[in-house]
């Protein structure tokens, strides 16, 4: 077995306090990386939380905050080798009943915030002549449509488009840009979606869960570790000839 060793690598993870982001942080730490975990739930601005873990507050919905945060990170820790954009949000409603405010909220985090984070760190990598990895946590919702998730699906489609363009533009600098497209993952956001989606569709959260499982060929929904392992692979030398990809981690639910 080839061990993945990220010693002497600096990784930045948005949305690192819960869900997939938390799982990614844990995997990167196990592989030896120094990790900066950014999340809106973190109170401090920039503070070591452990030997190789630094936690910092970030509100991705505020462009000025993203710009300030990237500036602080690069000044305090240097240009990262790895950037993983995990932070995301969703709203539940049929498109004809949805609000512009909800649309803008989802796009401000899932798309605009991700775009700024990717752009600014990529620019820092280019200026420092430092090859790196940028990994976007997209979704199978970036390839398909799902009822009551118009804003979320549209935002994730945009992420995949951005991934492909950045992969082309940054290839000459040795910066690899890929996306991971999880399927149904057991996270706090998914649990909330089952309650809200069930209310819209006249179903219980348990019924939604059973429906979810029935749609997956492997017969179960994903745990965060299933996704984090693929992210870890993309950070490693094992993925040194991959860029511009949108990798499904869906248990066979999405195959394109």
Automatic annotation (TrEMBL):
Q: Which Pfam families match?
A: adh_short_C2
The GO annotation for biological process reads:
bile acid metabolic process
Query: Which keywords appear in this protein's UniProt record, sorted alphabetically?
Result: Oxidoreductase
Molecular function terms, GO-annotated: oxidoreductase activity
Q: Which residues form a coiled coil?
A: none
Out of the domains of life, which is the source?
Answer: Bacteria
InterPro entries, alphabetically?
NAD(P)-bd_dom_sf, Sc_DH/Rdtase_CS, SDR_fam
Q: Which family does it belong to?
A: Belongs to the short-chain dehydrogenases/reductases (SDR) family.
Q: What is this protein called?
A: SDR family oxidoreductase
